[in-house]
Amino acid sequence: MGQAFADWGAAQLLAGDAAEAIATLDRAVKAAPALARSYYLRGRAKDLAGRPEAAVADYNLASRTAFADAPDLASGEAHLYRGISYYRRKEFQRAESEFSSALNLGIPAGLRADAEAWRSLAAVVSGACEASRESLAHALGAVSPFFPAQEAKAAMAKPRPVRGPGIH
Predict the structure, then answer these.
(1) How many helices, marked H, and strands, marked E, lie in the chain?
(2) Residue 156: which residues within 8 A CB-CB, separation 6 or more?
(3) Model pLDDT for residues 89-145, shown as the tens digit of each residue
């Protein structure tokens, strides 16, 4: 039942009903507390509902749950969720590192494009070189509907911060 509730909550989230998605994903978490994706989706719903602190808490729960489920404590999925938590706390360099770890450890194919886009988004927001913007623009073509594409496009539209000579 937990997976069914998670899928239903995801559909509600994609339909733009964050409040109903949160309620359904609460049921998913209760039915299957070991399903990290439910915490992640509930975090996205809370993000979209304008509850950033609650969203960060769910991203942290998603990460911990994925780590607990990983037999060797090497979980790309857990690093992805922890990276999102850092990103939302505006710890962009730590976030970028977590996204890189997610990609290096291996991650389910359905999350790979999102992890690549999150890594590029963290780099863009922290003022990285133009190549990061290009990577993000390229990655947006393959992300899941749960990736904050509009937020990424807004970040790419902002001018890059000016840094001292020789610093990129």
Answers:
(1) 9, 0
(2) 124, 133, 136, 137
(3) 999 999 999 899 889 887 888 889 999 999 999 999 988 777 888 889 999 999 999
